[in-house]
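$ ./design --mode recover --in tokens.txt
reading tokens...
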């Protein structure tokens, strides 16, 4: 069994609410129960790749009561710069994976806990395998698209933001007889849109996993009117395509693009056909920040404790997960197989459709 007394922890990928709560749980368990020294690695894998190394010893006195409540990550993070093909200033890419492994050993670490989404866990697992670096993963992402876990840290808080937005949009929609379109995050998975839309009383929910037609959306809005309501709420995931199958993206940096624009596309198309003012709200990074909701604090705490226990038991290449009302752990290999998307035939889509919500065309 690996003898551990110097543990590293890092956050990787997009930030979300609950990361600090997870770091806090790791530090508490590692120090209180095992008397280890914990090092927080800065800015994801960059902290071990850069020279000098960028890290901070995480002692209990740092946790003065705020960490559980704070959004973001005190360690910093990055969702760019794959160490195997790191973008260099001259436009080329360089394999910097060896610098990461070297950094791990320079800091004298015995094991690493990685808090990340499916993409980060895949890359970090591949990195760690280069030199059998003992690693345990903790799932986080507002998108909730990590396989083998019912919930990832950050999802609940993000959905609460969506619900809060719909609670605010509905009265103004009613006052002005408008169709309000809310564009939410979620990249390739529609979990945020689907859960937020149901809980926030949307009439239409469009997600990347289910094809839709503009006719279907127009029919639903007209039905709502016929039933006596003067306004409608539409939730659309950023990863939805236009009706003719084109991704809605905006130019970003260099020749790269990112999601954006599907809400405005829909507003333009619908305005001409539903005889009502259509307005768009793009929630963006508001969904990632803020104080973590209760469930994200609970998940983060349970995940942090269990991850440290796995390290203590010498169980590596595993990810902690939430299944059947509790924390379990699963092989990382079963996780890093892409995004866990919404099942168009699954129970949540069924609930939405049973409520009369238009969730695209039946497959
Ligand atoms: O994967 C999490 C996520 O918030 C997605 O929902 C979103 O598309 C993406 O990150 C945004 O990333 P960035 O912070 O780089 O804009």
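writing sequence...
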């Amino acid at each position: 069994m690996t003898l551990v007394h110097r543990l590293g922890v890092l956050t990787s990928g997009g930030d979300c609410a609950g990361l600090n709560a997870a770091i806090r749980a790791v530090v508490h368990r590692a120090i209180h129960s095992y008397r280890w020294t914990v090092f927080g690695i800065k800015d994801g894998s960059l902290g071990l790749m850069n020279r000098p190394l960028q890290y901070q010893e995480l002692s209990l006195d740092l946790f003065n009561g705020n960490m559980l409540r704070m959004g973001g990550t005190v360690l910093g993070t990055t969702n760019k710069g794959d160490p195997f093909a790191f973008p260099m200033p001259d436009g080329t890419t360089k394999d910097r994976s060896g610098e990461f492994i070297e950094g791990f050993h320079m800091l004298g670490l015995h094991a690493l806990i990685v808090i990340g989404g499916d993409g980060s866990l895949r890359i970090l697992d591949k990195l760690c395998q280069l030199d059998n670096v003992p690693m345990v993963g903790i799932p986080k992402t507002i998108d909730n698209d990590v396989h083998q876990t019912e919930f990832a840290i950050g999802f609940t808080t993000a959905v609460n933001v969506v619900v809060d937005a719909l609670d605010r949009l509905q009265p103004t929609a009613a006052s002005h007889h408008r169709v309000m379109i809310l564009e939410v995050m979620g990249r390739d998975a529609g979990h945020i849109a689907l859960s937020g839309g149901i809980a926030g009383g949307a009439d239409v929910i469009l997600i990347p996993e289910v094809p839709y037609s503009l006719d279907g959306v127009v029919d639903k809005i007209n039905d709502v009117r016929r039933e006596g309501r003067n306004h409608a709420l539409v939730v659309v995931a950023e990863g939805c395509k236009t009706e003719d199958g084109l991704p809605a993206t905006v130019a970003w940096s260099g020749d790269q693009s990112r999601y954006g624009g599907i809400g405005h596309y829909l507003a333009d198309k619908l305005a001409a056909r539903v005889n009502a003012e259509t307005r768009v709200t793009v929630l963006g990074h508001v969904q990632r920040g803020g104080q973590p909701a209760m469930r994200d604090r609970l998940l983060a705490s349970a995940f942090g404790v269990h991850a440290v226990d796995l390290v203590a038991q010498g169980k590596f290449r595993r990810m902690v997960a939430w299944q059947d009302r509790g924390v379990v752990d699963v092989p990382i290999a079963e996780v890093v197989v892409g995004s866990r998307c919404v099942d168009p035939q699954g129970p949540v889509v069924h609930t939405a459709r049973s409520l009369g919500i238009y969730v695209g065309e039946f497959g």
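exit 0
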